[in-house]
Amino acid sequence: MIKIRGGTFVDLKKVLIISLLLLSACGGGGGGGGGSGGTTSSNTQTNSTQIVDSSSSSSPQIINIKMKLYLPDNFNIRIDAINGSKIAEEGSEEVTHGYANSYPDESKVLMKFNDMESGKRYDIYVTGGAQSLSEKVGTIDLTGVKNDVLIMMDNRTEPPTAAMIEIDPNAPKVNIEAMVVFQDFTAEGNSGAEIRAEGEDTAIAVGSSYFPYSDDLHTVATSFNSIPLGQTYEIYITYPSENLLVGTIDLATIKDADYGQDFEKEIETDRGKFTFIYTLSK
User: Fold this and answer.
1) C-alpha distances in angstroms, 59 versus 55, 169, 174?
2) Which pairing describes strands 62-70 and 149-154: parallel, antiparallel, or unpaired?
3) What is the per-residue pLDDT for 58?
4) Where along the chain do its domains lie?
5) Closest-CA residue to 96 (of 125, 67, 69)
6) Is the per-residue pLDDT at 24 higher than 80?
7) Its pTM surpasses 0.85
8) Coil/strand/helix, residue 137
9) How far is CA 246 from CA 80, 87, 102, 150, in A?
């Protein structure tokens, strides 16, 4: 079960069952380059995650991989020091470097690997720290995968958990209405809104913003139409000098009962507190 922001639990759609193997990371943290990466202590454990797909007869495809990884506080590399990622065919020393961005407050790392061949097993690593450490976090099996995938791993739990969702290019689309109620500051001067796939730098859609309660500048609203299901999205209120992240919406795991419901979340940032509210419609 996956928790949708706002407090409801829903069943994963197109989630492939995961069997998790906990491996001992002997000598060198699995640096993917024959030990040329940083080393870790011999009693360190890393989580090897096998993702199983039953449709093994499909021919290989060139796909993009997105990963959302949660790490324990005692992970060998400080989460705020993680600045890279690597992927290699299982057992291979030849690695491909990927994108990584860490969110220490959430114990989260977002990773992305583009133009990878499906039908293979891959070892996944994160990198960073003063000594350029390399730490294996899991092994994924892309046998039978036909489309881009979103992989969610949580290595904080014992045993670790993971799931994979194929991103259907023909996925149904939804409409989003969102509202932000600022408590400690106003939305005065905002110039619009935009929505991005989580961790991405570019918007997939740009929307207008407005004040639904006339001269109340603490409340701003926006909407987006025809947003594809299958990913987590970030909503930004835009200003001439910045884009303010005001909330995230998980469209990977929604169900029919979620449409028409108000989802609400209290958010606190360095800038102040606010409430993010959104509603989905077909």
Assistant:
1) 10, 18, 31
2) parallel
3) 60
4) 2-166, 173-281
5) 125
6) no
7) no
8) strand
9) 21, 32, 18, 22
